[in-house]
Structure formats: structure tokens, C-alpha cells
Amino acid sequence: MIAIELELLSGRYIATAYNDREAAEWPPHPARLFSALVDAWAAGEPTSGEGEGERMALVWLERQEAPRIAASASDEIARRTVVPVFVPVNDTSVIREPSATREKLAAAEETLALRGTPAASDKALAKATKDRAALQKKLAADTAKATAAPAKISKADLEAAEELFPDRRGKQARTFPSVTPAEPRVTFVWAGEPEAALREALARLLTRLTRLGHSSSLVAARLVAACEAPRFAPSPDGELLLRGVAPGQMDRLLSAHRLHQGVESRVLPCTFVRYLEGVGSGSTETPRSVFDDEWIVLARQEGPRLPSLSTVGVAHQLRRALLAGGGEPMSEAISGHAADGAAATKPHLAVVPLPDVGGSYSHGGILGVALVLPREMTGEERAQILRAIGELERRARTEEDGAAEGDGDDPEFRLLLGAAGELRLARVVWGEHRTEGLRASTWCRASRRWATATPIALDRNPGDLHDADAGKRAKAFDVATELVAEAVTRIGLPAPAEIDVLRSCVLPGTEKPQRFPRFPISQERPQRVLVHARLRFEEAVRGPMLLGAGRYLGLGLCRPVDQGFRGRRRA
Hints:
Layout lengths: L1 E7 L4 E2 L1 E2 L2 E5 L5 H14 L5 H14 L5 E3 L6 E3 L5 E4 L10 H14 L9 H26 L7 H8 L8 E4 L3 E4 L3 E6 L5 H12 L11 E6 L7 E3 L5 E5 L4 H12 L10 E7 L18 E7 L8 H15 L6 H4 L14 E6 L10 E7 L6 H23 L10 E5 L5 E6 L12 H5 L2 E6 L3 E2 L12 H21 L7 E5 L27 E12 L16 E4 L6 E2 L2
Antiparallel strand pairs: 1-10, 1-11, 2-9, 3-4, 5-10, 6-9, 7-8, 12-14, 13-14, 15-17, 15-19, 16-17, 18-19, 20-23, 20-24, 21-23, 22-23, 22-25
Helix pairs in contact: 1-2, 2-6, 3-4, 8-10
């Protein structure tokens, strides 16, 4: 075991969440710590013998399993109110950076870094060697010219120089989210045990680590023999999504730095790891449905604000677009049909519009769409659905910008909805969206109580739920309750202890079942009865929970809730 302890010298941790500029990160992410260690290594003497030993220590660290984290609980930290602060912008007008030459030099160096691999041809290596020498000479000349004092100082030079003073520069809004934990210490614990030389190298690196996050977030770092029981642990049941590292992380950071040079905008290379908060995290496995909680989320960018009543229509249109862009043959796990055209016999792709429900000010409109995949899906089937999305994005770029195939990187496309207009959707490519309703964790976290955001389409007619005869009406509700229980067990979850079937709304922002359009849309198929429901389980279960005959088109979407209720108890 190896443990790194960070003491927050100011008592605060100042770091912005990766998906929300107005929120603070907590606990500190392992990828942020690793990046700080790489920075400490690069600021030292990386070409010396000790520098090589420290590099090997970092390579060892990036290959370890995600660490457990000992830190104050999420409810034991004070979050500072975030307000915009207007600060002077950095000067870019007096000395012009020869960025074009630097980028060409970085490209040549990347080619040379492939020496000895199948990807590097002799011709390409020879050209890169020649270009590097010329570009290094040109970069030095351009830099000297840009920084040299002018032979004659003009009025324009004086005016430009005045812009260097902070009070003359333009101001830009910045935010500095901060948390103050109850205990100003954070400890990262890895299960692996490094060799003595690697441990010593890590200890040297930690003596040079001065900050984590913002430059004002000062830390003292050290190796420790033991620590209190970690509160945050990697777990597939986790609700926290933290940025972690994987083999090759150091090379990715160095490659990224050659491009941005610490000046240009950048995105921290990382892998996302789910963490569970609480002592003993991950010791038991929570029951899960047949659907995966690693969603592909498409956020609404522009277009009509559609109500949840449009759930099935939007899902139908997006499903058709994906099937058209996915090529042939389309996997059964995506199309929902076997090769002979019969209905699939195993779980397949669900296209689920995500409504804004559950909050005091929820408006019920569709925020975006989630592509929910079955957990049994193969890697090739997942790749096929990603190719289908990529084809929609490529078409959008070509149609709108006249770009050649493969140009651009904007993951956005259009969904035509007939008379309703055009909906523009963009794929969420980094972690989770800042909007709560577009986060998979919002819908999938472990809970004992759940409620429907869209009504369940029952598998058969339970009888008249509106019958004037109280006895017949009660019997219909009993049958509906059993049908909901069957729908729950059909997706691999234990039967609920209590079920409350409702004809009215359950969560703020939801719509009454009778207001939803006919399901299925086809008049040739029998119409399904739609109901809302609240569920209580004996133990916490994880989502996603999609119930009933319309589960692959967004009906029967459930959300975990905390408030209790009294429903029909099942024998």
C-alpha cells in the first residue's frame, strides 16, 4: 500500500468542477493530483538521473487501480458562494507569440516520437528530422525578433506598452469556487506497493508539490504509512464521477502540453471512474437492472421546448435516424429486431427523452435524450451505435458548413420533427452534463424509493381504472399493481415491497397519463393503458429503471426519490 497525504494549508480547496464553472470539485480528483505531480517533475530536472527515477515512479503510479480517498464527507464541507470577479486579461498585444512555428515544431517532434513503431516510415522520419532543425532555428529567430527592443520607439509602441498596466487592460469575468472541509486533509490510498527506489522518487516529488487546483490552493504533500478509513472508494454503484488516470497518462499530458504550452485552452486528459461515498464503500453489490448506467447523452441545444407528452414521438424519430445512419447489417441489440424481422428476445437499445421533473421549478420539458444500452451489449455493438451517431454529426457538418467529410469536431446534429420543427442535439463528450436532469447518476443512483417521470404502458389491459363501481375499480388497480411488479422483475430487479398505482401526476413537472398520446402510435395494434406509479423496495436498487411495454421509447422512466409514501403492500 502507498498513501499520499495532502494538507490544505489555507484550510480551503479551490478548484472548479470539470462540468460546471460555478461549482467546486470535491473530493479532489485523482487525475488532478497526478497532473500536479507531473508538473512538479517537469519543473525540476527531468533529464537528470533523479528525474528519470521520478518519471518511472509516475509511470508506475498511472498503472495502478484507482485510489481510495480519505476526505471530509460531502455534507461536512462549506461551499463558498460563487460571485463573478472581473480580473485584467493577460497581455497578448505587445509580444506576438510565434504559435504557428511552435505548432509545426510540435508536429515534427510527435512524428519523431514514433520512431521504432510500425506507424513511422523512414521517409516521414527523415522529413521530420529535417523540419525540426529548420523549425527550431526559425522559432529562435522569430522569438528574438518579437522580444527585441525597437530601434525607434513610436507613439504606437508607447500606447501598446501602456496596455500592459492592469488598470488599462480589459476585464474578464472569472469565478473561483471554493470548499472548506471540516478536516483540511485529503489522503489518496493505492493498494499497490512500489519498490523502494520508486517510493523514494515519489517522496522527492511530493516535496516540490506546492498546490492542487488553483494557484492559491496551497498544499503540503507527503507519504504516510496509514490513514483513517477512506470515505470514497471506486465502485460501479458509485454516484460520484471522478477523473482518474490510466496507463499512458503521462505521455498524454506531455503531448497536450507541447500543443497548448500552458497558454492555450486545454482539456485535462482523463478516464472517468465512479466512486461511492461512505465507509465500507463497495462491500456489497446493489441490485441492478438489465440496462447500463453508462449512457450516451444528447443535450438539447436549440429548437422547440417539447413537453414530456412528446416522449414517444421524439424517441421514434431519433431511433429512425440512428438506424438510417448505422449501416447494415444492424445489430439486434440496436434495432430491436432479429434478422428475420421478429421482435428481439433480449434487451436492446432504449431511446429515452429526459424530462425536467422532480424539482420545485421543474417545467416538464424535454432536456435531451439518453441512449440507454443493455449491460450485455458487446464492444462491437457499442461501436456500431457510436458510428451511427458520428454519421449524423458528419452529415450536419457537411450540410451546414459545406465542410469536407471528416472536417470539424462539433458533436451536434439536427433531428427533424415534422410540424414541430427541428431539434438540435449535441453529444455530451466529457463526463456528465451540468444540468441535473441530463446526468445518468440522477436517474440511476441507488435508492429504495422510485417514482415514474413518464407513465408506464401496461403489458395488458387491467380493466377500467375509472369504473364507477368501486369494486371493479379496485380489482383493476390490483391487476395494474401486479403488472407493474412483473415489469420490474422483467428488467432484472427484485419485486417491490410496495407499489402505488396512480392516474394522476407523481413528481413535479410530470403530466397525467390520460394526456399522453395513444400508445402504440399504430392504430393496428391494441392501445396500452398508461399509469403512473411509486415503488418502494426492501433494499436499495440501482437504475436505470425503465418499465412496461414502452420502455424502449422512453415510457416508464423512473427517478429515485427520497420522500416516503404509503402504497399497496405486496404479499
